[in-house]
Amino acid sequence: MSNKYVYSFVMLAVITVILAGITGIYRNNTKEEKKAAQENITVITSFYPMYIAADNLLQGVDGVTLQNLSEPQTGCLHDFQLTPEDMKLLSTADVFVINGSGAETFIADVIKQYPKLKVIDATKNFENLSSHIDEETAMHAWMDPYLYGLEIKNISDGLKGVLKEQETELTGNEKTYLSQIKKLQNRVKSLRQTLKGRDVILFSEAYLGFADTLGLNNVYLMDLDEERQVSSGEVAKVMNAIEESKDVFVLAEDPYGKDLGTTVKKERDVEVLYIDTLTRGDYNRHRYVEGMQANLDLIKELIERETH
Ligand SMILES: [Zn+2]
Q1: Is the distance from CB of 59 to CB of 173 less than 8 angstroms?
Q2: 72, 45 in Cβ contact below 8 A?
């Protein structure tokens, strides 16, 4: 081989290597981009308690954007109307986490509009639970730490179905969060021993599960979960229910139950506890655990006041 041929051969080899290298880099880049695009999943939650649950489950899970549909001060979604902006936000979602059991009255419209949207129903299969749960209780399931634990499990299972590669992280987060909820469940269990069968009056249907899990006997429910006028007839009925029950106390919501709570406390000398419905607050993932702890503290303090 002449020098000239050797030179050409070497040059060709060099060019081939460079080209192969460039193609390789290019291939890797597109692969990375594709992977990133695939992993960038948008999870939207319907309202505050679902956001807090999902936020705990998604800690440190890469490639997920978590957003809440409603404002964090919205409260329950009973009368919530979807705006065009809400629908627009939902069009960006891969996953929509809901409480289910009728809490999101608009869900049928969303499914109709976005039939491919993956919906995670936190109260899925609640109708099959051994202890019968009525729909009003399931609608506010997070107010019972036992049912909330099941909601976390349902949400976690749903997320694992979508984020298959992050299953380990999700399982770890689920365990961590459930261990915190377990402590609340244990407190409920111990309070129930003292409270079992005791009469209670509820000023919001959001407390049905809370009262039930504490073993309380709900003798009267007046739903004051929004700003409204209370008629004198309604006040009379509550007064009557107080008189007919034994060692009764009231669970009310601040602010909606405050006026009536003040009235019954003054006129019937009955204990009124203002229980947090945990539907409003900052986007702080400890909000549920801290809020439920505070609720259970109120119950514990009531027992202590009575026994001292
Ligand atoms: Zn509600």
Answers
A1: yes
A2: no
Distance (Å, whole) CA 291 – CA 306: 23
- CB-count exposure of residue 298 (10 Å: 0-12, 13-18, 19+): middle
* Ligand 1 mean position, distance from CA 266 (Å): 27
Q: Helix, strand, or coil here: 267?
A: helix
| Cα(182) to centroid(ligand 1), Å | 24
**CA 191–ligand 1 middle distance (angstroms):** 24
Give a three-class secondary structure readout of 70-119.
Answer: CCCCCCCCCCCCCCHHHHHHHHCCCEEEECCCCCCCCHHHHHHHCCCCEE
- Residue 265 neighbours by CB distance under 10 Å: 14
Specify whether the CB–CB gap between 223 and 173 falls below 8 A.
no
Q: What is the pLDDT of residues 22-44, one digit of tens each?
A: 555 555 555 555 455 556 999 99
